[in-house]
Amino acid sequence: MDYSRFFSDDVPSFMRSPVREIFRKVDLSAIFSFAGGYPSAETFPLDGMGALAEAVVRKYGAKSMQYGATQGVPELRELIARRNGVSIENVQITTSSQQGIDVCTRILANPGDVVEVTAPTYLGALQSFRAYRAEAVTEEGLAGRKPKFFYVIPDFGNPSGETMTLEERKDLVERARREDFLIVEDSPYRELRYEGEDVPTIYSLAPERTLHLGSFSKVFAPGFRLGWILGPQELLEQIYICKQALDLCPPVFDQYMAAEFLGSGELDRNLLKTRELYRGRRDIMLGLLEKYMPEGVTWTHPEGGLFLFVTLPEGVDTVKMYDTALSEGVAYVAGSFFFADGSHCNTMRLNFSYIDMDRMEPGVKLLSDVIRRSL
Amino acid sequence: MDYSRFFSDDVPSFMRSPVREIFRKVDLSAIFSFAGGYPSAETFPLDGMGALAEAVVRKYGAKSMQYGATQGVPELRELIARRNGVSIENVQITTSSQQGIDVCTRILANPGDVVEVTAPTYLGALQSFRAYRAEAVTEEGLAGRKPKFFYVIPDFGNPSGETMTLEERKDLVERARREDFLIVEDSPYRELRYEGEDVPTIYSLAPERTLHLGSFSKVFAPGFRLGWILGPQELLEQIYICKQALDLCPPVFDQYMAAEFLGSGELDRNLLKTRELYRGRRDIMLGLLEKYMPEGVTWTHPEGGLFLFVTLPEGVDTVKMYDTALSEGVAYVAGSFFFADGSHCNTMRLNFSYIDMDRMEPGVKLLSDVIRRSL
Question: In this predicted model, what pLDDT tens digit does every residue of A295-347 receive, in sequence order?
């Protein structure tokens, strides 16, 4: 039976995530994987999960398993509010920060509307924008049109690994105020800084026109689908009403697990270890690229986060090279997927958080060989 | 700052859930509440949660805390497939069955499309349809238009408590095939039958044009936001792509908790006790209504589920009566919220699963008094 006659007009714009498609088909544990944005399993508090669940039940009882408020449980909202120096009314818990992107797009973008993005930008955000038939373009692509909002990961961007300076943030805010658009600041990696100083969030510079997205995925575990949105109450109110119809409320037991993990100080203790681990991996990664990559290949030097972005000589097509790489046993994500216009075919995103330490050298060596042969 | 200039065209159609608004403002534990569709806390396996979390970590290790497949983790999909006698390819796990309704609407309905519903029907579904600017109408309201799909809770409907006969299901399927529309069969209560025989699901009668929604909320706990969709692979494929952009994947730790609870047989043992408990409450409720309700008030006799639906004499407006009831200390949900056209102002939904056994009699007595005074 052909179902196409039933589909909504949004469906032809749905875009598969090439990253998720890789995971659908390939057993990553069998290859050297620099694809994906997975945290290291070493950062998961596995041994403490039973005790954490028991503490939640002891402390919160039946309400930990019941339906909860659409905004999120007050205990977790309060903890996040305090951590970010905002009021609880400015905190909406989301069922993952991907949902945060989705719901912001839902309340703001009509088909044909323009969303301004950086080049490159996060693939999952491009998926959300396209699924609502909004057009994602860079500043150059605006051609005089006003964006509804600007989407950006200012700290250790996915995929670039780069961080916006304070000047750049101030310029963006000034432009947003002058041209009257909103800013969606996606900030899942902000707490994973390995060197340098924190730069103020865009939200702190323009709280009246910024929706700031946070996530537990990189500081606790992505298996709990939990994020949050900080923003003006008037915007959060529409997100709240929308979210009622999306999933009624965020996962309640997960929220109390996160509240317990955060409130007890475990999260911050774990974060110290996580930063150490990832700083080490980043440094090894940078050293290995220096050691093995052929001449003409360059890469970013991230101060934090999970990724670095590699540029190969012009003419190399990393999408075409991908099957070869995979058959040789090494995976990356082609960089062109992160460009709204599909350009920059000679780039790739490498993740350094997931792969085991002792597999980094053979992995980078293998990848360098594949690249060298393609030159 | 006025944000209305930024909002998408969907936003004015967003509809607040009157039920969720009640919970936002009122401490339900302080009143006699027949509102909401909450399961009884007595059915939650609270004492076993620590051990369950430990079993999950022991059995599944780090993958229980990592990102997972967008379709859901294979172990849970397999268990649900077996329980429902379908293939794993016909199972998509959802982050709540509310998300199931949302995503089905998303892939099927354009603004202005018609979704056929029963009268009354589930409020959360009306919210989803309206949020996509689809028009929810009953058969009488079709006026010659073809629905994109028919949405129905055939077993112990919310709010009616009523169950479709096999003949009615066959007629619906025949009509769907003749007139060429799909069916979304929402089935969160099916396993909560207290008398009578199971009626075959609509999905079993028309697997080629039905999306069947299931939920863990009433057989495990709603604090884990987990449901599933059974349906044709071609439809699930679009839901899968859409869900990537919605939240990447359902909560992974929750899925393994549910898989462990289901796979170990605990779910079925717990379900036996849950049915006993709710059967008792339903019987008490029916007896109390008989004992206290004024003449001219009628109600449904549900064979299962969580609700019964009360009809008062013409002229009584249960929306207007609500503030009085609440100030007296008793809550219900006005029935007109469950009608796409807002009619049937003289009806109300009563939930009998949540309120403690010893609070049922004073609650029904109080409600009966409020009703009597409004006649």
Answer: 999 999 999 999 999 999 999 999 999 999 999 999 999 999 999 999 999 99
CB atoms A39 and B224 under 8 Å: no
* B17: chain A residues, CB-CB within 8 Å: 244
Provide, as residue numbers in chain A, all residues whose Cβ is less than 8 Å from the Cβ of B213.
Answer: none
Nearest CA in chain A to B9: A110
Which residues from A are below 8 Å from B49, CB to CB? 53-54, 56-57, 65
Q: pLDDT value at position A12?
A: 94
Is B11–A238 a contact, with Cβ atoms under 8 angstroms apart? yes
Tell me the domain boundaries of chain A.
Answer: 4-44+268-374, 63-264
CA separation for the pair A56, A54 (Å, rounded): 5
Q: What is the pLDDT of residues A203-212, one digit of tens each?
A: 999 999 999 9
Structure tokens at B288: 């109390």
Helix extents (H) in A132-265: 166-179, 202-205, 233-247, 252-263
Q: What does pTM read for this prediction?
A: 0.97
Q: Closest CB to A244: pick one of B46, B49, B127.
A: B127
CB contact under 8 A, B238 and A61: no
pLDDT above 70 as % of chain B: 99
ipTM associated with this complex: 0.97
Q: Exposed (0-12), middle (13-18) or buried (19+): which is A204, by Cβ within 10 Å?
A: middle
The residue in chain A having the minimum alpha-carbon distance to the alpha carbon of residue B111 is A8
Subunit contact A254:B254, Cβ cutoff 8 A: yes
For an interface test with B, which of A5, A52, A65 has the most B Cβ atoms less than 10 Å from its Cβ? A65
CATH placement of domain A4-44+268-374: 3.90.1150.10
Q: What is the pLDDT of residues A150-171, one digit of tens each?
A: 999 999 999 999 999 999 999 9
d(CA B280, CA B106): 39
Residue B156: predicted pLDDT: 98
Nearest to B60 by CA among B49, B50, B52, B70: B52
CA distance A113 to A107: 12
Is 3.30.565.10 the CATH number for B60-264?
no
Pick the CATH number of A63-264 from 3.40.640.10, 2.40.70.10, 2.40.160.20, 3.40.50.450: 3.40.640.10
For B170, residues 6+ apart whose C-beta sits below 8 A from its C-beta are: B205
Find the CB nearest A95 among B9, B132, B247. Answer: B247
Helical spans, DSSP H, in B109-147: 123-131
